[in-house]
Structures are given as structure tokens and as C-alpha cells.
Amino acid sequence: MRPAILSLSFILLTFCAWSQKKSAKTVPVVKKPLTHAVYDQWREIPYKAITTDGNVVALAINPQDGDGKVVFFDLKANTQDSVKRAAEIGLTFDSRYAVFRIKPPINTVKDLRRQKKKKEDLPKDSLGIYAFGTKKLEKIAEIRSYKIAEKAGGWVAYQLEAKKEAKPKADDKTKSKPDSVKKEVKPKKIKKNTDDNGYTLVLRKLSDGKETSFGYVKDYAIAKYGQGVLFASTGNDSTLKAGVYWYDLQQEKLQPLYAGKAKQKMKGLAINEDGTQVSFIVDADTTKALKRYPKLYHWKKGDASAIVLADENKTGMPPSWIVSEHYVPSFSKDGSKLFVGINPQPVVQDTMLLQEEIVNVEVWNWQDGLIYPQQNKQLDNEKKRSYQSVIHLADGKLVTLGSKEMPTVDQADEGNAAVALGRSDMAYRRNTTWDISGYEDVFLLNVADGSKKDVVKKLKGNPFISPKAGYVYWFSLPDTAWFSYAVKDSKTYKLAQEVKIRFADEEDDHPDFPSSYGVAGWLANDRSMLVYDRYDIWSLDPENKRAPVNLTKIGREQKLVFRYVKLDPEERFIDPEKEMLLQVFDETTKVSGFYKLSLKDNKLTKLVMSEHRYASVIKAKNAERLIYTRENFTEYPDVWTTDPNFSAPKKISQANPQMKNYLWGSVEMVSWTSLDNIPLQGLLYKPEGFDPKKKYPMIVYFYEKNTDNLYNHIVPAPIRSYINYSYYTSNGYLVFVPDIVYKIGYPGESAHNCILPGVTSLIAKGFVDEKHIGVQGHSWGGYQTAYLVTRTNMFAAAEAGAPVSNMTSAYGGIRWESGFSRMFQYEKSQSRIGGTLWETPIRYIENSPIFFADKIQTPLLMMHNDGDGAVPWYQGIEFYMALRRLDKPVWMLNYNNQGHGLTQRQDRTDFAIRMSQFFDHYLKGAPAPEWMKKGIPAVEKGINKGYSTSASETLMLGQK
After folding, report:
1. Is residue 209 part of a domain?
2. Could you give the CA distance from residue 747 to residue 673 in angstroms, rounded to a whole number?
């Protein structure tokens, strides 16, 4: 009987195991709502690249807060490898190595900072060198920086951190000196590695690891094609004197170019395209004199040393002008010219004055070109401003191109051309106080002698010069048309006059001239300019000799938007012998994808179209291999690879596999008609498992138009300024994002007339809890939120971020981040009032929420920070004080020293928590947290967050 019992037991055990295995397969994953605690673990892909040969893809995959990694995907072997904490990744041009920094563990650094360790005692970055062939990693400790050649492999140059000084041991200090020692001999002072002295530079040959080191290097540059390394050293007084050096990487030989002194400033290192010439700037004065006289040096291969090419005495230099130490010289691509910056000798302070004798006063003159706040914001740039000049290297002739009257010069044909483009807005700067698009005069400059000729005066539109410098071209905003100016005969042409469609934004609803849709590029030898209309790509002859040609043809008919994808970052013109890759967006369905266009026969071929958003297309330099991202609301933008025909797409990354564990949601387009009888669309985000028979709380968010973002993925993350759709749908909310169209002069009413019927159309469907609808917006959306709650009681709660509450006081204010007057905002830009305060005062009052604050019955949360450089925070204060005086429920969050949107992660997380608590209370009936009930006294700021509620502590928030 015993064997039978064993056999039965075995059968039972086998059945149980099989049953459990089957059960494990069929039991679905129990999904949970997103919490604020998940943000840190959510990963992003901030860097992606493919090797020149197309065999390896490198991706940085980092958590939002924590240690990330670089992952190498070997496409041929179908394998992957990774290195932890990699950053600033570079791939060598020969496709053999990846070079990168390796950061110390974040938690280790934080722990040491909590221990109040000094910056110099914190762990430093290492250099990582990963060989794709052997899959081996080599680490070099404590590096400051590294550089690799843009178009060559073989070498890496890096600088080391300063070595830590060994502290003397305690017993060494207490040792008694021998009686025979009468006088202490002071040790020789050792030169330290500092920012002033420089740091050790190491040149490493990657094939065998051979290294060559140079001490006290202040600056260094590696030639584009790896011919050599140019560096400046303050010298070590023994083996390496202070000066500038060239290290030939092919011959592995050092050549001194300039012998200087340790305290001289040697900077502005530049190397020409083929590595046969270099230039640099030296300020040889080692005193603290305020007036400086830098000199420009030049060296070419074969010369014994560098020579002075320009200084304050150079022929052609304007009187009292000097070489700029703030402009890095650059060679023309053919090496025939060297472009350099020069500037007037700056006005300096009288050093004999005492502090109490200096008067610091701003004189605001009504005739100033730029108002004083703009001048203050641009002060550092103005102190460093230089004006472009060119030195012809064949004869050393210096030609001044730029000037105070014409500060902007654009090189042509990579500096090779005989002409350059000059631009000046000096005569019109005062107008930019109220008309930010401004005007400028455009000139053609003769590089040989500096002479100029007029191209167009008082242009409103940006001018450019064609790749081979045959034409100057621009889009004139008042004419809503493209123009070209032929350099060879000085004739101007208005292009495509016979074409009936517009090349300007057809949907622009601002009280200003609409912008163009842009330029795809030029064909070789400046034969044709390819420009966009709303949908298609057009070929325009810059001299109107050939009729305009619609290359894509079907765009307008099918409402497909075609845009050129530039696969080669160095491409200067579009090769008509190659097929063009076009990104395509269906304006009706919002799907997107790619087509290809052959310019030989104008054949248009569809490659892929799907319910996704595609982006970040990168091509391997020497292989037919692409990488790109693909996303939609439920699909993270992971990286895919394919051939140029998209025939075999393959996903190679999976950054956030944990998504499957969380409730997410879906999104769809909805339609309705505004109160002004305008057909509108919007996006409706629904919770996962949506049941149309249930009623859901809903939050309305808006900012102009958003329906084109139907297939955007929304990563769970702390919020900068507006609600995270994924978080709210995961937690049982509907999120409605309506499009808005505007009537000039009535921005608030336009928002009201578009949004409210959209909300009521959803209420009519039966699944919206009409008593629990919230509204949220920031900046322009914050203003409209504040306006809406003065006009309707539809919303149970509202959050308005950085709202303009009083247009009459905001009109004359300053955008402190840029220094601009706010006038343009109201007259011609986003606020769309369409006139000055004294021309249309009633519009400013009617559109200002503060004048109707007594009508508000909706509890309002605001976030407006004292460092806001776009909307002055006194706008939030005015509204808060009005509602407080009226005894309305209002809260204002001021994150000290933060700007228009939150940037610090801890503040963004805090705002996300508070906003969700606010809406949960009013839209879901959750208990109010302490900060809403009692506030947080100033003495507890930064100590007590006030998140807790009567129901629970931070567990409800999903906090760690």
C-alpha cells in the first residue's frame, strides 16, 4: 500500500502545482492609482544617439530623482549592456567607444552634504570609457571635463580635479624638534591646481591607453578631425613654461606657439577646419589695470611660433578700439579668413573714488532706445559686446564689418563668401516697448572692404542669407509674403504672387501680423527655396523665373501637414538626388507619421501613419539606420529603430515597465459649438475602466489650443504649473481640455463663450458630476480662470496660477525676467486687447477680474511667486487682497524666489500635493488639510507642511 500512497501524494502535489501555475497566469494584475510618491521612480530618456556605423544605440535612462544609467543596444548582436550613473555621453566618430562622466551616487553626496562637508571634500566625477568591441569599461577617477573630436576617433582629452592635500598626522605635529635644528627651513611653496592656475590635462590614446599629461592648463580645444589639441597653460616653471601649445595627435609631438607668463590671460582658442591653423587671444598685462589691451595671435602649420595678427594698433582698427577678449575667433571653412570681435575701449570706474562718493542713479530718459529694466537685464552682455571684423589671412588685412550703428553681422557660406549680412534695429528700438516684433534695416556687406549697400529698410520680419550667399530672403509680416534679394544684381523679388494660398498662419487670432510657416531649406547652389504653407511644401524660384511648384500636392486637400525632417545636422542644402523624409500630421484625426518625397519625379510615398506622436528622428551618419521616439497617452515615448523606409520598426527601450501596475486612462476628441457659433474641439481624458453610467468629478484645464496634442504622453511628475492629466485620471477624475478661439478685444469673454458650452455638452452626456467640476489654468490660463469665476458659478473649485487680475495696472508694468514693458502683451500679443489703455479703457476694465471680484462664489487657490519675471506677483496680491476683503475663500501659494513656473523639484512636488488636496476636498469631499483650514504661520514656514487632515496623515498622499 505504501507505493500507492506515495503515488497518490505525487499526483495531488503535481495537480496543486499545476493549478497554482495556471492560476498565477490567469489572475490579472491589480492596478493601483498613481500617488505623488511614484514620481521619483518614473524614468526619462534625456539622451539618445546612434554610432556613425549604425550598429550601437546609446540611451541615458534616468529616474526623475536618483541614479540613472546609460544603456548600449548592440543592434547587430541584439544585446545590451549598461553603465550606472553615466552622464554627458559622447560617441567617438569611429564607432568604437563611448566616453562619459560617471557621477557619484546621489544619496552618498546628499549624506555628505548633510554632514556639512565642504564642496572640495565631496566625491568627484569619474571618466568612463566603454569599448563597444570588447564591452569593457575603464574608469578614470576625479575628472573635471573631457572632449573628443567631432569627426575623428582615437583620442580623448580630459582634465583632472585638483589633488587633495594630505593632512599632517597628529603625532607629526607633536614631535619635538632636534636640538641641532636652530632654524626651521620653510618648504618650497607648491603651485596648486586652481581655477586661476589651471588643472592637469591628459591626452589619452584610446587604442592602447597611452597617456600624455600637461600641467596647469586653463583652457583646451580639440580639432574637429582630430589633428591636434590646442591648450593654454600657466606653466610649472620646470618642464612646461607658461604659454600656448599645439599637440599634434598624429605625430604625438608638442610644439610651443607662444611663450607667456603665468598671470597672463590666454583664451579664445580656435582651430580651423583642417587643423592647419589656430588662433588665440592674449592679455599680456599682469597688473590689475582696468584698461586692457588684448592681442590676437595666429599660427599656421610649419611656422615656428604664433605671431600677433591684430591689436589696438592694427591698421583698419577704429581709433580707441581693441580686440575683444569675449569673442572666440572663428575661421572660415576654407581657412582664408579669420573672424574676430572688436569693441570700443570701455568706460571704466575712477578707482580713486570712495564708495560714499559714487552716485548710483538710473536716468530713465523718454528717448532711450531700450527702457532701463531692459538695459539692466542686458548689462553683462553689453559690457562684453563685440563687433564682428574679418582678417584676410593672405595679406593680414583687417576689415571692420559690425559697428555701433549696425551691431549684428551674419556670415555667409560658412564664412567663405565675399559678402555678409548686416542688420540694425537701432533706429527702431524705442518702438519695441509696445511693438515687440520691431523693425530693422538690412544691408549687404562687402567682406573685402567693409562697404555696405541697402537691401531693405524698416523690415518687419527676419532676414536670412541663402547657403551659397546668392540671395537675401525674408518673410514680410505686413505683406504676408516671401521676398528675395539677388546679390549679383541687387534686385528684389516678391515671390509666389500668383499663388492664391497664404504662407502666413491662417489661424492666427492676435491683433498683429501673422507669422510665416517657415522654410524647409534650399536646393543645391541656391536653385530653389522650399517653404511651407499650412499644409504643403512649395518650391519657389528666388527670381520668379519658374512658377511655384507644390511638391506635396495632397496636403491641403487631405488636411495633411508636411514638414521636412533634416537627418544630417550639417546639411546646408537639400540634395535633389536624395529622397526627403517628411513628418506628417493629420489635422483632422491628429494621427501622424512619415512620408518620403523624391524630388526627381515629385513622387510622394507614405511610409507609416498611426495613432501616435513621432519625434526625435536621428540617422546614423554612415548607415541607413534611424532611431526615433513614438508615443501616445498610454505609451511612453520609448526609442525605436528602423530603416529609412520604416519597413521593420523595433522598440529597443522600455523605460517604464512599471506603468502596467497603475491605473491610467484614455483620451478622445470631443466637439461642440461655442456661444459665438464657432465649431470647436477639445480633449477628454477618462479614467481607466470608465463607465458612462457613473458620474465622475471633472477638472477643466485650458491654454489656447491643445487638440493637436491628442497623442502626447503625460508622464507622472511633480507639476511646474498645471495639473498632471495622468495623475488625475488615475485617481478617478475626468479632465477636459477645450480649445479656445479669440475675438480681438474680448479675451475673457472669448474664453467664457468657448469653455462653458464645452462643459455643458459633456454634462449632457450624463457621466459628469455637475456639482463637482473644477477649473485650473496658469499664466494666460490663470487669467482666464480668474475671469471665468467672476462670470459663472458652474465650478465648485478653481486654481489660478500667476493670474493677471488687473489689466489697467499690469499694462504699465515690467516683465522683470526680460526687462520688457508689458504694453505689447495687451496691445498686440496674447492678451489681444488690440489698443492702448487710453484708446480702449473699457476693454481693459471689462477684461479685468478684480473689478468683478464681488461676484465670485467659487473657492479659489492661487500660486503666484515673488520671483515671477513674466507676470508681476502684485497681480496675484491684488486679487488675493480683494477676495480676502470680500471674505471669499481664497488661498495664495508663494514659493519664495521661484519664478513664473516652479523649477525646484521639492516645490513642484509640494504644489502637486496641495493642488490635489484642494480639488479632492471640493470635488470628492475629502477632508481639508491643515494648510487649508488654518494656514501655516511664518514661524513654521519650511518646517510644517500642513498636509495632514482629520482623516489621516501623509499615508493618504502616498508619501514616503
Report:
1. no
2. 17
